[in-house]
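Please, structure for the following, as tokens.
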Amino acid sequence: MNSAGFEALMRPRAVIVSDTPIGVDDAQRALRACDCEIVSQVGLAEAVVALRDGPMPDLVVLSLSDAAQVHPAGPIDLVSGLASSLHCRLVLSAPMGVIDTLSADVWRASEALLSDPTDVDFAAAIAVAIGGPRQQLHDVARDMESARLQRLADEVGRIARTLASLSVSTPIPGDNVGDVRPSFLGEPVLIEVEPSASEVRAVIRMRRLRERFFDRDLFADPAWDMLLDLMAARIERVQVAVSSLCIAASVPPTTALRWIKTMTDSGLFDRIADPDDGRRIFIRLSDAAADKLARYFSALRTANEVVI
């Protein structure tokens, strides 16, 4: 076999599943940018048969529109379940209204969740999904590497946007500037007074206030913004939908969704179904994360410090 034939065999094979021609076009552009072979493109209704009886893919790209119907044991759940059973990666793109209703099983099965992504976002998600060996068993090391790659991609994007917005004449600090990390661990912090919702909301308002004076990308920290928003919601006993949490993150939706998935997988967030509508998913702080945040605010109060 010549080198061209060998390279063709090594190209990742992808199946596009979409309920709209626009979704097919978006997926095609992203897959071609990543040099993937598109073995088939089908609608939601035909997807299960195509995956079960057609060529074995390495990747399934599920591109949905607002009209996609989400319900338990529906086509979307069946496609994601079949992708998992075939040990192939799943990249899902959908409007935020659809993502709000996806089941926990679909979240777990998806390598990446995208909402109205740009071509760059779509291609980047596919590149990360196909960047490692196909997963036959649960690989903890791979989970950690995936989270690291997501953080790296977010950081590279943030730096690029920041550099583009800064003047070339802006002075650059010297190399001797850096954080000092303590080499010891302090005593466990006791929670003397539980933080109030108004206290947490005040911190969120201070963080947003900075954006009136500086480029928001300078201080982009979606993980912290989401932790604070969910902490306030927990105290107020308010449920938070995925779309609302993405807004609170103050970053593009696709970036926020990557962080939500990463923090859910790491045990900081819990996904729960709406008791009144099983199709709708809420995100809340895990008990362990809420306890850590409560101790953090208690430590700040004791030290008479302000958090931003």
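Confidence is low (pLDDT under 50) at residues 1-6, 133-142, 167-175. The longest strand covers residues 277-285.
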